[in-house]
Amino acid sequence: MKVAAGEAVIAILHTPREKLFGILDEINAAGIHLRAIDLEYFDDWCAAIAKGEPYLAMSDYFIPMWRVERVIRDAGESTMLELFEQRTGRNLGEF
Questions:
Q1: What residues make up the domain containing 26?
Q2: Does 22 map to a domain?
Q3: Pairing between β-strand 59-64 and β-strand 31-38 as defined by DSSP bridges
Q4: Which of 9, 18, 41, 71 could form a Cys-Cys staple with 13, CB 3.0–4.6 A?
């Protein structure tokens, strides 16, 4: 089953190495479009939202395909999406 627009994903990139968590907008031969945050910021981001403190907003990205190592559907037993909702009490779609 392929990853589809609107799904929560983790994008692993190279040159430079980055990991992004967000919602996939589009994937095509040129690259991927997604609304995401850097995965390293995830814990601080959730904490700030839960406390009502200022936080960096998700950004809109276009990543050219040559930088994409993998795009993984956020699925399984304990997903990033579930962690976000548990920690903040909010829906990721609001952001």
A1: 8-89
A2: yes
A3: antiparallel
A4: 18
- When pLDDT is cut at 50, 70 and 90, the band that residue 1 belongs to is confident
Long-range CB pairs of 83-91 (<8 Å, 24+ gap) are 83/42, 83/46, 84/42, 84/46, 87/46, 87/47, 87/49, 87/50, 88/46, 88/49, 88/50, 89/50, 90/49
Give the CATH number of the domain where residue 19 resides: 2.30.30
Inter-axis angle of helices 80-88 and 42-51, nearest 10: 30
Q: Torsions phi, psi of 44, nearest 5? A: -65, -40
In a domain, 3, yes or no: no
pTM metric for this prediction:
0.90
In a domain, 42, yes or no: yes
Give the count of domains, the chain.
1
